[in-house]
Amino acid sequence: MASLPAQAGGGLQARARSVEIVEVGAEATSFVHPKRVPQMADADDAMAGVPRVDGVSYIGLVANERGLDRALASGVDEVNVVVVAIETLTGVELGASALDSGAGGIGGCPLAPAATGNIATEDLAYQLRRSGIHFGLDLDGVLAAAALIGAELGIRLPALLGRAGDFPERQF
Cα dist. 64→32, 41, 71, 74 in Å? Predict the structure, then answer.
């Protein structure tokens, strides 16, 4: 699994923030045990290197109390907490008010070796726009950020829109 050093991650965060989004929240890093998840060992440095912009909530993912302590000490605005569900969700009605995505389709979990990552922000935005749902996202900015991520990682990203190109917006 490819990973970015903290210095590169801060630059990508700054680029990603230049993209206008309706509700702005950036999961900046994960505060997990560095020996168990070495890719996240520099979470404190990564968080410290993220330039702050008014109106953006900087989020840290935590799995336990120690991770919470580290996240709060590093200055996150919010935390997302890992919750392990034991029971099945049979018969439970689920709704979504927010969608989690990542530029280029990166992300995922280093603890799950077969994790495919997040849905690509640009692919999600394209699908929503083609469905007539407009929400103020700078798609060109996301595509530029994804291209930068791919170049930094030296990999071909799983996102499809960056490969195929945008399609003219439909008139409804």
Answer: 8, 15, 11, 15
What is the residue type of 46?
A
Instruction: State the DSSP code for 141.
Output: H
Half-sphere exposure of 75 (CA within 13 A, CB side): 10
Q: For 34-50, how does the pLDDT look when each residue is reduced to its tens digit (9 = 90+)? A: 888 888 888 888 888 88
Percentage of residues of the chain with pLDDT beyond 70: 69
77, two tokens: 């605005």
Segment (H or E) for 68? helix 65-74
pLDDT band of residue 131 (cuts 50, 70, 90) is confident
CA 146 to chain centre: 11
Residue 154, by phi and psi: left (phi above 0), alpha (psi -120 to 50) or beta? left
Domains and CATH numbers, the chain: 6-86+102-160 (3.20.20.70)
User: Between 94 and 170, whose confidence is greater?
Assistant: 170
Q: What is the pLDDT of residues 69-80, one digit of tens each?
A: 999 999 898 888
Q: Could you identify the residue written with the tokens 């109390």?
A: 65
